Amino acid sequence: MKTGIDLISFYTPNYFLDLKVLAEHRGVDKDKFYLGIGQEKMAIPPPDEDIVTMAASAAEPILEKIDRSSVELMILATESGIDQSKAAALFAHSLLELPRRCRAVELKEACYAATAGLQLAASWVKDHPDKKALVIGTDIARYDLRSPGEPTQGAGAVAMLVTTEPRVLALDAEYGLYAEDVMDFWRPNYRDNALVDGKYSMLVYISALLESWKQYAERSGRRFEDHARFCYHLPFTKMAEKAHSRLMKDVGLTPTPALMDALLGDSLRYNRITGNTYTASVYEGLSSLLDHCTDDLGSKRIGLFSYGSGCMGEFYSGVVQPEYRQHLFTERHSRLIAGRTELTYQQYEDIFQLGFPTDGGEHTFAQYRTGPFRLAGVSQHKRIYEAL
Ligand code: HMG
Predict the structure, then answer these.
(1) Residues lining ligand 1, judged by CB closer than 6 Å?
(2) Considering the entire predicted model, what is its pTM?
(3) Domain boundaries, the chain
(4) Which atom belonging to ligand 1 lies closest to the Cα atom of 36?
(5) Which single residue of 212, 255, 303, 324 could bond 176 by disulfide (Cβ 3.0 to 4.6 Å)?
(6) Contact 310/185 with Cβ under 8 angstroms?
């Protein structure tokens, strides 16, 4: 029985900062960001947007196309959680008017958790082929101002419908895993911004890739050449290029610029202009590939590498379904990206410094441009959402 991604939808906030503006304010050459890490813009959520509104905004276009009552499992993956106890999935479940008879939970393992969610959902639908699962990765990547991680910030969400009749990507059964207890990136409960050992994190990412590829290749018997394209976890696009080039050398191939661009280029386009979307990023890459690739990828196999600091890596694959183009949200994605508003440096820093009210009082948030849902305020420590 096939299982996999039936529909995939991406959302990113309506505001961004151009990294050349950040470079001016940090006194560095803009090409350190544009070329050195391969990033041009970072998405900035306005104060009335959070991981819940982004998750719901990503999922709504999918749910408009199906019978919502068939969704009996909802997994929301995030590492920018808003509550230590209540799952963000339940807020999104309510905004999306999903059925009460639904298992709704939040999953965490840094940027990897949406992949755990996808694999768990794929196994679950095998046992319940008449039901559907909704898996969402949603995150706001934040580092301290003026830290090396600052230009890799970003925000966005990807929602995926998982079924036994996937119209976009059928997952292969084989996967390779790598788990190790390391401190490359973390965010203690008392901090809003992540801490990271940047150079070390890049080394761990690459060793997790090589190890998980090894197990995947042994189990599946597939070679590198059996994959038409690759999608990587994208903390910044240069990371994927470095990792992919290393993997190619490891399997005895030469990573020429033309080959690298052919295998990876289309998957990097959204990330370059949104920044890191943590749990969503490998699926943002998949969405970018499917939306931009001019070759017909139908019946072609895609290799995917998901990485979460801490760390957890997984290499897996899937076959693009023949009529996939009819089931994408390409136009919607391109309207969203084209309609974004550029922020000034001062607006970026003002939003960054705003802080979330923690006094337990009544707070109403000013209305900015969001998707179909917004965070209207907070009352006695309870977030209040509204559909527009
Ligand atoms: P840095 O140390 O400030 O940058 O921050 P750098 O000095 O290494 O420069 C970056 C690149 O730009 C270098 O290229 C420079 O040569 C080049 P490389 O040597 O690496 O090929 N460069 C220039 N190029 C052209 N023109 C110029 C110029 N100047 C310099 N004028 C660092 C880099 C990645 C450390 C930082 O951005 C950081 O800490 N980022 C956050 C951590 C991160 O993203 N790690 C990635 C792996 S871990 C991961 O993916 C998990 C994560 O997503 C979280 C999770 O799982 O939960 C982060």
Answers:
(1) 29, 31-32, 35-37, 79, 110-111, 148-149, 152, 184-185, 196, 198-199, 201-202, 205, 233, 235-236, 239, 276, 278, 307-309
(2) 0.98
(3) 3-387
(4) 12
(5) 212
(6) yes
Residue range 3-387, CATH number:
3.40.47.10
Active site residue 79: yes
Catalytic residue among 233, 241, 284, 314: 233
What phi, psi does 90 have (nearest 5°)?
-70, -35
Residue 157 buriedness (CB in 10 A; 0-12 / 13-18 / 19+): buried
Ligand 1 mean position, distance from CA 109 (Å): 22
Known catalytic membership, residue 311: no
Active site residue 111: yes
24, 32, 193, best to mutate for ligand 1 pocket (most atoms within 8 Å of CB): 32
Token pair, residue 333, equals 């994605």
Catalytic residue among 60, 72, 79, 314: 79
Q: What does the DSSP 8-state code read for residue 28?
A: S
Q: Which residues contact 35 (CB under 8 A, 6 or more apart)?
A: none
Ligand 1 atom closest to Cα of residue 197: 39
> What is the C-alpha to C-alpha distance for residues 96 and 59, in angstroms, rounded to an integer?
8
CA 101 distance to own-chain centroid: 27
What are the pLDDT tens digits along the chain (388 aa)? 999 999 999 999 999 999 999 999 999 999 999 999 999 999 999 999 999 999 999 999 999 999 999 999 999 999 999 999 999 999 999 999 999 999 999 999 999 999 999 999 999 999 999 999 999 999 999 999 999 999 999 999 999 999 999 999 999 999 999 999 999 999 999 999 999 999 999 999 999 999 999 999 999 999 999 999 999 999 999 999 999 999 999 999 999 999 999 999 999 999 999 999 999 999 999 999 999 999 999 999 999 999 999 999 999 999 999 999 999 999 999 999 999 999 999 999 999 999 899 999 999 999 999 999 999 999 999 999 999 9
DSSP 8-class letter at 84: S
Strands of 301-308's sheet in order across: 103-107, 71-77, 132-141, 154-163, 4-11, 169-179, 312-320, 301-308, 229-232
Measured in Å, residue 355 CA sits from the centre of ligand 1 at 27
Question: What residues are paired with 111 via a beta bridge?
Answer: 109
